[in-house]
Write a structure and sequence with these properties.
Helix content is about 25%, strand content about 0%. The termini are far apart.
Length: about 60
């Protein structure tokens, strides 16, 4: 009987000393800057009367 009384504190110590897992806190998503893209219209479009030619072209005779 005396042996059981000496084991009770040991059992209580072992069961209460178990590590409790802390809940993992997931990090919040990072904040971003948001901007709306809006089409201005045709009045802002520029027209250049020219012809585009590649830089490596040659005139053959």
């Amino acid at each position: 009987m005396n042996r059981y009384f000496s084991l009770i504190p040991v059992v209580i110590l072992i069961t209460t000393a178990c590590d409790q897992k802390a809940p993992q806190v997931t990090p919040l998503p990072r904040m971003v800057k948001v901007a709306d893209v809006v089409a201005i219209g045709d009045s802002q479009q520029r027209i250049f009367p020219a012809r585009i030619e590649s830089g490596d072209s040659t005139d053959l005779s």
